[in-house]
Design goal:
1 helix; 4-stranded antiparallel β-sheet; mainly beta; 6-stranded mixed β-sheet
Length: 119
């Protein structure tokens, strides 16, 4: 059973930075793509960033390109999201997960970590 524990969120002023971490236990981590998602109040969960199993390939939602960086440490079963130049619209709960489990309808979600950006 896969367990996902997100951390690193908090309250930050616009223009500030945060680094989120997601520690994964259970299942096979190395070589599997991982995604970061966020859910703003009243909105559906959306994909923010993706990273390949090796970490060599990444993709981002247009609104975060140039500000967010996704990375991973396969030795630590951890995926990170460095968020710079934060904006109030980045506010929300952030989650990580395996896209293959989501596509298969088998994904369990962690508790997420809350990011609040004040203007």
């Amino acid at each position: 059973q896969v367990q996902l524990v997100e951390s690193g969120g908090g309250l930050v002023q616009a223009g500030g930075s945060l680094r989120l971490s997601c520690v994964v236990s259970g299942g096979f981590f190395s070589g599997r793509p991982m995604n970061w998602y966020r859910q703003a109040p009243g909105n559906e969960r959306e994909l923010v960033a993706s990273i390949s199993g090796s970490g060599a390939s990444t993709n981002y939602k247009d609104s975060v390109k140039g500000r967010f960086t996704i990375s991973r440490d396969n030795a630590k079963n951890t995926v990170y999201l460095q968020m710079n130049s934060l904006k109030p619209e980045d506010t929300g709960a952030y989650y990580c997960n395996y896209p293959d489990l989501i596509r298969a309808g088998m994904a369990d979600w962690g508790k997420g970590t809350l990011v609040t950006v004040s203007s």
